[in-house]
Design goal:
5% helix; 17 strands; OprB_sf; 55% strand; Porin; Carb-sel_porin_OprB; 332 residues; 16-stranded antiparallel beta barrel; mainly beta
Amino acid sequence: WAFDLMDTASGGRARGWKAPALIDLRLTRHQRLQSGLDSYWHVDLIRIFGSNPSRDAGDIQVLDNLAAHHAWRLYRAFWQVGDARQHWALRLGWQGYDELFGLVPDAVDLLNSSFGQMPTSSQVGMPIWPQTAPGISARWHPDAFYVMAGLWSGVPRDPGIPQGLNLPRRGDGSLQALELGLDRHGRYKLALGAWALHRAGVAQQAHRGVYALADIVLLGAGSARHLGGFVQWGQTQPYQSAIGRYVGAGVRWTTRRHGRVSLGMARALLSPSFRLQHPGSARAETAYELTWRKRIDAQLALQPDVQYIVHPALAPRAGHALEIGLRVDSSF
């Protein structure tokens, strides 16, 4: 489970504490098949509750990645098979695009949603946390080079199905995704990716995007104390999205004794259509975040967090928002 306390200390639309929370029940089973392949079954049932800090801050990038509609959901239910010797894996079932594509290892501790999944893709109807869709994904990774591809049937984020299964329906369309790159675990990751989201029978609503990312160990590669840095870039059609372009960057300092300290900047360039609908909006919204994740023991971690949102896009007449918070998460 995870629980956040976030306070809009200044600026934004309103003051006060917000407390999004998550309960996650997981079941995983691993088998070694007679053919020598590794087989995994994985199921996630999640319960989301609490309040959304972005309602007070007025930001469009979603400053807390736990915030979502209250619901019980079957988040993931998939079967994965692969061969480590042949360097491939195949996954079938309910899964999220954001579990595999566009991942930045040194950004995982930052709470702002843009660091986990760029807003040029996350805000257009992708099958991402917390509502996924049935699909198939594959990865081939000989040595450092890798290529991933995915196909999803059904489009999530439908207000008509606020909880439970996201079953495919006529007219849902599909999502196709491709990513290729170089990944030396513990040293660097470089990737390029593209995606296309289609609505069945409505060609003009096809939505496409591209992205690039780099994550590199800057100091202390291979040691317990090291400094990593990352950059992100994403772009999609501005006439179909609130955010047409995104740039993110950050660093993470890791030590065995003191935990991990992360600093990040996420800048979302607003589309002309969004600015037309929200008079007075600035050209871009920028979020700065500083967070420190400290593991207390094997089951409990604490994470103080500070964010400063410059020109919150959904509150153009409000001041820059200062957010102060704490995440508590535990596993058993």
